[in-house]
Specification:
69 residues; globular
């Protein structure tokens, strides 16, 4: 991403997705709340898992709660 604004928006969206996931919200509902397709949420989550070296949704939720996202 060459555009700093898009990069900032992408990181903000990642944080929002992690916060929602940590609250137990489904991918479909996360998408609805953030104006994203459910498939986009799934793609974003997979990127987040890879970035953080996390295997699944549960591990991400635990990490998010520990870091107070």
């Amino acid at each position: 991403m060459n555009n700093p604004h898009k990069e900032a928006q992408f990181k903000l969206t990642e944080r929002q997705i992690v916060r929602e996931l940590a609250e137990g919200i489904t991918n479909k509902e996360i998408g609805r709340r953030l104006g994203l397709a459910e498939g986009t949420v799934k793609v974003q989550l997979n990127r987040i898992y890879r970035k953080l070296g996390i295997a699944n949704r549960t591990a991400l939720a635990v990490m998010a709660h520990r870091r107070s996202y």
